[in-house]
Structures are given as structure tokens and as C-alpha cells.
Fold these 3 entries.
Entry 1:
Amino acid sequence: MSTSVSPNRPTRTAAPAPSAAQGVWLVAEREIGSKLRSKAFVISTAILFLVALAGVIWGGFTASDTSGVPVAVTPDAASQVEGVAGLDITNAPDRAAAEDLVRDGSVDAVIVGDPSSPVGFALIAESSVPTNLLLMLAETPPVELLEPDETGGALRFLVAIGFGAVFLLAASLFGGTIAQSVVEEKQTRVVEILISAIPTRALLAGKVIGNTVLAMAQILGLTAIAVIGLTVTGQTALLQGLGGPIAWFAVFFFFGFILLASLFAAAAAMVSRQEDIGSTTTPLTMLIMAPYFLVIFFNDNPLVVGIMSYVPFSAPVGMPLRLFLGEAQWWEPLLSLAILVATCIAAIFVGAKIYENSLLRMGARVKLREALGA
């Protein structure tokens, strides 16, 4: 007895494999979705935002409480303090007389006209300039110290801490998360299913893009908090001074994060157990922390900060700091960014090769020479 199949009955066909671009987007969506469903990630992000908001508001109100700041002003700089509330102004006939007022402690700082300054005036202080005074001025002027101390100004240190802490926390948090995700997929064999549907490099690209989107969202959130906090506390002058450096920080952070995310994923692919992640990612963590601490501890050393503003792993902190303090020429951030982008591209190629050669190897840790092999 023969059977026949109705010609009108639909037949099942295999779903076409996703293209490389579709595969990247699917992995990125998966990474973003898993983070947003994680209570730990959501709570830690909320705490970060709350702490940042509290810090900005507290700092803004502290800076706005500037009644009685004693400053001397020479005639050629009198227009710079017009409309600035909270100053106890002493008029000095000339620069020499103003410096004498600083030395004998009558005033904390002197505002003098300076044709060579980009903003038309300069500040003179004994060993350090009061942070509140710098925050009150519409533009950050050059600073001259009569008796410089070894630690530098407080504002320089605070700005270095601010940029450095954001970059360090984001890079460490997301770098560690990427590494754990890669090893977890290896342990559970999920990666074998994934790369049967999409190319290995598309899987890596999706992970990097997904986590970059989340990290940049946090940066934009922190930027919005800074704008709101400074606006509420009336620190619009400081907000104007920080606008450019913050924008540059976001650009540097974007490429710096892609650089680190690619390397973290590649390093994690070399091991097969969560317990072994530290053996391959510790060098990367040191690459993040060492430049960060150099910029923080040597923030008052223009030579060290200048060098670190060109090192790819510390440029996202060093260059915005120099821009805020007016120590960088207009072309320097462009050159530093070009170096960072070139390093980022090289890291992507190297990281992709390590990731591709190590992802399916189970058991003992893959040696770097083998991971870089053809």
C-alpha cells in the first residue's frame, strides 16, 4: 500500500543562518539583556549614581559657600571679579604690592592681568590656590605659586580622582564581567552551540559592543548627574569649564574601553575554569591600575602627567585632566586620541586571534604562544 503526500502540505525548511552583522547584534542584545536582568548590576549602578549625585551636590554647595574669601585684585584685572559674589576684595595698586599681601597672609590669592594668558588674567598664591576660588571663576586661569608645595592644588587632585575613579571602576567591573561570561560559556559548552551558528569573531564583537553600550550608558548617566548637580547648586561656571574635558573623556573612554574589553575577553578564553581567570586577567588589571595611580599620585608633576596622557591605558584620565587645567595645546588630545585608536585597532586584531584560537580548548590553560599561533 503506497502513501502520497499532499502537494499543498507545507514542508519544513531549515532557518537560514544569521549573517555576521545579525550575529553580532544578537550577541550584543544577549549581553545587554543579561546585565539588565541582573539585580547586582542594577543595584550597583543605582548606588554609583546616588553616590555621584551626593558628591556633586555636596561639592557644589561647599564650593558655593565662599563668603569672605580674601583676594587682592590689580587694576588690570578688576573686570574679572565683577559680579562674583563671596569675595573679600582688596585693591592692590600693582603686582608687587599684591604679592606682598599674599606673603604676609592678608589675602589667600591675587588676581592680576596677564596678556599672555588665554583667559586674560592669572592667579598668584603662596603655596596653593584655594579650591573654592578656582570654582567661582568663569574660566580656569594659569596659576603662579610663590612658594610651591610638593602636593599641588586640591582641584587638580579632585579632578584626577574623578576621571580616574570612573574609568577604573567601569573598566574593572565590565572587564571582569566579560571574562566571567566567556569562561562560563566554555564550561557549559554553550559556546559550541553559539559558534556553530555565528563566526567566532562575531561572538567576540557582540560581547564587546554589548558591554561598551552599557558602559557608555553609565558614563552618560554620570554626565547627566554632574550637569544636574552643578546646575542645582549654581555652579554654572564650573560646569562650563568641565564641559570640554568631560566630552573628551567620553571619547577617550569609548576607545579605551573597547581596547580593554577585547583584551579581557581574549585573556579569559585562554582558561576553562572560573578559578583560573585571575591568572590571565591580572596583567590587564595592572595595566589599568598602574597608570591610574601614576596619574593620581603625580598629578602635580606636569612631566609625568604629560607622558601618561599619551599612554593608551592612562590617556582617558591624563588628557582630560590636562585639558581642564589648561596645560594641553589644542593638537595634543588629537594626537593622543590617534595613538589610542591605533592601539585599540591592534588590540582588537590580537585579541580576536587569541579568542579564536583558545575558545574551544578545554582543560589546562592555553599558553600565549599557542593562542597567538596560526
Entry 2:
Amino acid sequence: MCRNIRQLFNFDPPATDDEIRDAALQFVRKVSGSTRPSKRNEEAFERAVAEIAGSVRELLGSMETAQPPKNREEEAARARARTMIRFA
């Protein structure tokens, strides 16, 4: 899995449309092997991003959990701490 794609489910506040689109874009980039499609493939690339983002929105909206929502700041602080340890 690509490291830039982050968990989006069960956060307070919920994932934004921008976060969902960014994850979809990163997924399409990984699958296609291209960070910037050629003009010829640009329409297919953007269509794939839009379709995947829509599917992710639907998925996140339909999932349920008994766990309390995670705090974004706390999760970001944990990620920074792991990065400091890893790259120190």
C-alpha cells in the first residue's frame, strides 16, 4: 500500500472531500505508474479519480463501528513521533 494514503474512516471531524480526492488521486497514480498523465490519458485519469473518490465516499458513509472516533491531532502527533524515531 502506498504510504501517502491514510486511513480516513472513524475520525472526528470526518474526512473531507479534499482528503478523499487526494487519496483517490494517489491510488490512481500508483496503479497507473504515472504522477502526471499525458494529454491523451488525462480524461481517463481524472475520470478514474472521480469514480474512486465517489466509491470511497459511499464506503465511508455506509461503514459502522462501535469504536469512538479518533482525534486528528492525536493521530498526527503519533505519526510525527513515529517518523522522528524512524528517521532520527
Entry 3:
Amino acid sequence: MTILVTGGAGYIGSHTVAELQRQGYDVVVFDNLEHGHREAVRGCPFILGDLLNPDDIGRAFDEHDIGGVIHFAAYVEVDESMRNPTKYFRNNVQGTVNLAAAMAEHGVKQIVFSSSCSVYGQPEVVPITEEESQKPESVYGVSKLMAEQVLRWFDVCHGLRHVALRYFNASGAAADGSLGDEYKPATRIIPVLMEYLLGQRPRFFINGDGYATPDGTCIRDYIHVDDLATAHVAALRYLAAGSPSAAFNLGTGQGYSNLEIVNTVRQITELDFEVEVGPRRPGDPPMVWADNRKARRELGWEPHYGLREIIEHAWRWHSSHPDGYGQGGP
């Protein structure tokens, strides 16, 4: 089966493309390279295009015998989404509409969608199951939920079955050192900390230390990007077996605090560094981690890496590629 991967030159997309290739799939990558990197994609056709241009996405289906789709292409910054909601609704929602319409027109019936745990907003129960109420608190989270709803109705109307994979905190780099997180500017704690240690940031701070947690800092679930990649392939197989549309949480099922991240980085890098405490971010819940039992049960998937491996692989990538794909490449 040939798989079209939108956003396949981005962080999670490029790791998933590599995993698809390892497992024997033919892959076509579709990306506008706004945040993706052409150097991160090897050994497969590449289409430079934008989902907001229906002709671009139509060309991908016209030129290739696509059997399924993995859809990553989206903007992902919560803060930016609140400053520029039009950008997020247009790209994340309308882009998904255009993609689903092209799939319906070309008779492609299977799609794996890169969703987010942000669709849950402030959780009522931790760990979070797929039955948690969906009440996103940012435009980004709403855009992901709306895209899920678009796919639901394309299933009802056109038989387009989908799997929505609701990530928790994607982290790390390829275990073999070939790929890493080149998203700029970095906004997640681990790549931000890596940049700080490489002298690319003047300071590092965590957002608040007065939360109702054992050390006062927020607790989150960090999932290795290679484990996310294997989950996407498992979701394709789930759909290929004729299974119905569904949503799955992807996390390790364990939370780590910001200070635990900092201390693990100190241990692995053997570097000491100053940590400042900044203000809380509005709406940050104290504790969030996944109940991943549904994914384990129905997808036959499980995560293989923990926090230590995540940080080891991230440090290996960032320290050997201080300029990202501009230095060394994959």
C-alpha cells in the first residue's frame, strides 16, 4: 500500500515516514516546508504543496496510487492560536476539509489523523481516558477537535474511516540519531532546554512552581517520537483490517514534573545550569497524563521508551546537530 503523508517533512511526520519505510510501505510525502525540512525525507517521492490549494492535494492523488493517508500538516502553537485564530481555523480545519474531499473524490477510504490531548482541555479525571469530556481551552485545541468532527462526518457521508491519535507530549529524537526535532522556535521544555545548554538561549525558566504536585511544578506525559511513529503504522493496520473509526490516546501512562525533566537532563549531560521560575501560564492544569490502555488493547501498540531515553536521544541529536538539518543532515 502507498501511504500519503501530509506534513511528512515535519518533526513527527519525518519519523513516521522512516518507520513506514522500515515496515515496507511505499510513501509519498506532501509538505509546504513552512516548518518541515526537505533533508528529513529520504527515499520517497516528495510533493511541495499546500492543503489550502485543492489543486496541490488533488495532484498528489492523480499522480500516485494512494491507498491510505496519514495527516500531520497543521499549526501547533497554543499561544499563537490565541493571537491569530484565523490562521489556525483556516489551515487546520479547512486544510483537513480539502484533504478529506480529495480522498472522497479519489475513493481513498482510510486516514490516520494527528490529533492532540488538547481536545480535552482541563481534565476532570487523571489519567485521561478517551471518554473524558472534550472541552478545549485554546483555538489550537478547538481546531483539532473540529478536524476530528470533519473526519467523522466524512465517514458518515462517504465511508472515510479514520483513527484520531491524541498525542500527549511528543519528545525525543530518532533512536539511531538520524532524525530530530528541528522545529523553530522551540517551545516545548526539552528542546528549549537543549538550546539553552548549547548557548542558543540566554536563559531557561519553568512556568510556575506553586502547583499542587509533589515538587510544585507541572506534571506531564512525555511520549517518544519513535513510539508515536509505530502507533501510526499500527493505526493503519487497524483500518486496513476493516475496523471502525476511533480515537486513541498516545502517552506512556506516566507523568513527570518539570523539575524531574531538569534533573534528568543534568544527569545525562553531566552539565549544571541555572533554572529560573517564571509565571504560570493561564489554564495550565497541574497534572496531565494518559490512560493508554485502549491503544494497547485495540491497536496492539505499546511505548518502548521512557524519559531517560527521550532525553538521551534528544541530547544526542541536538548536540550533534546544533544548527539542525543545516549541519550534518539526517
